Amino acid sequence: MNIVVCVKHVPDAQSDRTFDAADNTTEREAVDGLLSELDEYAVEEALKIKEAAGDDTTVTILTMGPAKAADAVKKSLQMGADAGVHVSDDALAGSDSIATSLVLAKAVEKIGGVDLVLTGMASTDGTMSVVPAMLAERLGLPQVTFASELTLDGSTVTIRRDGDVATEVVRASLPAVVSVTDQINEPRYPSFKGIMAAKKKPVQTFSLADLGVDASEVGLDAAWTKVTQITQRPPRQQGLVVTDDGNGGAVLAQFLTMQKFV
Amino acid sequence: MSEVLVLVDHVDGQVRKTTSELLTLARRLGEPSAVFLGPGFDAAKETLAAYGAQKVYRVENPDVDDYLVVPVVDVLAALVEQAAPAAVLVSSSAHGKEIAARLAVRTGSGLITDAVDIRAGGSGVETTQSVFAGGYTVEATVTRGTPIVTVKPNSCAPEQAPGAAADEVVDVTVSDAAKTAQITERREKQKSGRPELSEAAIVVSGGRGTNGDFSPVEAFADALGAAVGASRAAVDAGWYPHTSQVGQTGKQVSPQLYVACGISGAIQHRAGMQTSKTIVAVNKDEEAPIFELVDFGVVGDLFTVLPQATQAVEAGKG
Ligand SMILES: Cc1cc2nc3c(=O)[nH]c(=O)nc-3n(C[C@H](O)[C@H](O)[C@H](O)COP(=O)(O)OP(=O)(O)OC[C@H]3O[C@@H](n4cnc5c(N)ncnc54)[C@H](O)[C@@H]3O)c2cc1C
Ligand SMILES: Nc1ncnc2c1ncn2[C@@H]1O[C@H](COP(=O)(O)O)[C@@H](O)[C@H]1O
User: Fold this and answer.
1) Where are the domains of chain B?
2) Which of A151, A164, A230, B15 is least surrounded, with the fewest CB atoms within 10 Å of its CB?
3) What is the pLDDT of residue A163?
4) What confidence score (pLDDT) does residue A235 get?
5) Do residues B148 and B109 touch, judged by C-beta distance below 8 A?
6) B145, B202, B296: residue with CB nearest A240
């Protein structure tokens, strides 16, 4: 079986994330980046499927992003994936989710013979949770999203999806696009052996031309939405913090009454 | 005036508050037309009319409930073509965002997710979003196709305005391609009797500091008529259901009042509650990062502070 896992390289949420002043896009150069934590769950799930299959199942990591995004592929290979594909092209800067899904779909088609596309539930920078659905739409594959449990049985994939009003069981035939939540597993840390082995694993780099995507379809200028203004929120003024001296609960109730919540 | 399509969020005709909010916002852009799928229209009609829906497109095709996401996209795509609306508004749940995402690709339209405000501007539909855990406010517009916008719950106060809610049955055949991800089982969530987390005006949440005992958190929530939330640490420990998790990988809430009890305030938790209007915390550790956000905080043990506060609130209501 051929599994492709889509992973994103994102600015570290612990650092000061910001925007590029010139074009209002997310600043990706000056800020430390890493493999999006939520994509580690997708990598882990792929590795579990491979281990359970015990056959020649391959796990290919796919990312689209600037040169630094290679780090996200590297980390996934260290965890145990077999190969990497990095789509990188200057024209991609500022791409929105519509363009991202186009490029990822073309890359999945180019990789070819893919049975399962796994993704995270959201990227930790954009947190849109839209790329997996768009990818399914573009590839014409079943969309099986927000899996907090996944079972494969021959060519059938079944997931548990915890929705707002109900928990659903969703079933589809492979090939399919499946996104996984952070409830599904516990991602492993790369072992020393894994780190050494990753150095020899193949990573291919594709340009837009390799994928047959025209530069006019991607990047900031092709985005179907436009950011007109960005304002940093003034930091919240810290309010009153009192230490409980036996009366803390009563004082809290007083505050809520004053604010008309009671 | 152009139509504005609003996808109705409902359970068997019980229209959710988010839909009243969307109808209220839609009136700023044009004439709201509700899109109602599934059973229960008779129960829903009154609410849709009260919040200004002039038209209601009804689809009763059962396929809509048996397959994931795509049948709804088929319906909306057909209506976008037919009605050429000024915008399509969907509520910002995980499900809503996926519908919007596919609709955008299908109709060649720009997509804006998690808007907290929307208005008609010089360059068409203008939106406001809150990004990077509430650190920045972003204004945006759609430059191509039909603006498709998902709006976060509690983004506006629903305002009534009478509408005709004239219903028009739409006969949409759901494509075979839409039937590839089948919902084979559905277990309804148990109702807690408390308000729905993402819609509630007040949320009281508990974290690892509860040590597994949520009773003081629940009692305080009930005194305030609030929904109960939880941190991921509390959910992972099995103390509270995952559907109650607030944060990056749980629900994003923006109530009038958020009370964090025994929660440290990790960035992933903040991502789900930072846009709350008033924030209150009870935590034993005065260094806990949650205190950086609060309008009011009590450094103390939640097992003594909350019961006392609950009692005082109940006495005050007297
Ligand atoms: C990919 C990813 C996604 C995540 N998504 C989420 C998410 O959606 N939501 C989320 O919440 N977290 C999320 N997290 C986890 C997050 O990083 C924190 O680990 C989590 O929020 C901590 O929960 P907590 O505040 O309850 O626990 P802790 O950080 O352990 O804090 C407990 C607090 O309780 C206080 N306390 C202890 N006893 C008492 C007492 N008797 N009275 C008063 N105070 C007391 C302590 O002083 C402490 O501040 C995510 C993490 C990752 C990696
Ligand atoms: N640039 C990218 N490269 C590879 N995968 C991506 C990229 N952007 C998003 N994804 C995948 O899509 C998922 C959801 O992303 P998003 O819709 O941006 O929240 C992520 O968890 C990734 O698996």
Assistant:
1) 3-179, 197-317
2) A151
3) 84
4) 74
5) yes
6) B296
A122–B70: do the CB atoms touch at under 8 Å? Answer: no
User: Which helix (H) or strand (E) segment is B306 a member of?
Assistant: helix B302-317
- The span from the CA of B112 to the CA of B127, in Å, is 8
Write down the pLDDT at residue A21: 65
pTM for the whole thing? Answer: 0.93
Q: Does B132 touch chain A (CB under 8 A)?
A: yes
ipTM of the complex: 0.93
Task: Give the distance, in angstroms, between the CA of residue B52 and the centroid of all CA atoms in the same chain.
Answer: 20
Contacts of B24 (CB under 8 A, 6+ apart): B51, B52, B156, B157, B158, B159, B161
The CATH-assigned architecture of domain A2-222 is 3-Layer(aba) Sandwich (3.40)
What residues of chain B, 254 to 293, have a C-beta less than 8 Å from chain A?
256-257, 267-268, 271, 278-280, 282, 286, 291-293
| Distance between CA atoms of residues A174 and B114, nearest Å | 31
The reported pLDDT for the residue numbered B169 is 93
Which pLDDT value is given to residue B63?
79
Nearest Cβ partner for B143 among A134, A225, A231: A225
| Other CB atoms within 10 Å distance of the CB of residue B174 | 20
Measure B99 CA to ligand 2 centroid, in angstroms: 17
> Using the 8-state DSSP alphabet, how is residue B27 labeled?
T
Whether A262 and B101 lie within 8 Å, measured CB to CB: no
Domain B197-317: CATH superfamily, name plus number: TPP-binding domain (3.40.50.1220)
Beta carbon of A132 within 6 Å of any ligand 2 atom: yes
Which two tokens mark B42? 């008779």
Comparing alpha-carbon positions, the chain A residue that sits nearest to B67 is A170
Q: Hey, whose CA ends up nearest to atom 43 of ligand 1? A: B283
**A235/chain B closest Cα distance in angstroms:** 8
Which are the contacts of A81, defined by CB distance < 8 A and separation ≥ 6?
A5, A43, A46, A47, A59, A60, A61, A201
User: Which residues of chain B does A259 touch, with a Cβ-Cβ cutoff of 8 Å?
Assistant: 257, 278
User: Mean pLDDT of successive 10-residue segments in chain B (318 residues)?
Assistant: 94 94 97 95 96 95 86 95 97 95 97 94 89 81 96 93 94 86 90 89 98 98 98 97 93 94 95 92 97 96 98 88
Torsion, Cα of A188, A190, A194, A200 (10° steps): 120
Domains B3-179 and B197-317 share a fold: yes
**Chain A: closest CA distance from residue B183 (Å):** 4
Which two tokens mark A101? 């899904």
- Spell out, as residue ranges, where chain A has pLDDT lower than 70: 13-31, 126-127
Domain B3-179 has CATH 2.40.400.10: no
Cα A119 to middle of ligand 2, angstroms: 7
| DSSP-derived 3-state class of residue A140 | coil
What residue spans of chain A are helical by DSSP H?
37-53, 70-79, 97-111, 131-139, 192-198, 208-211, 248-258
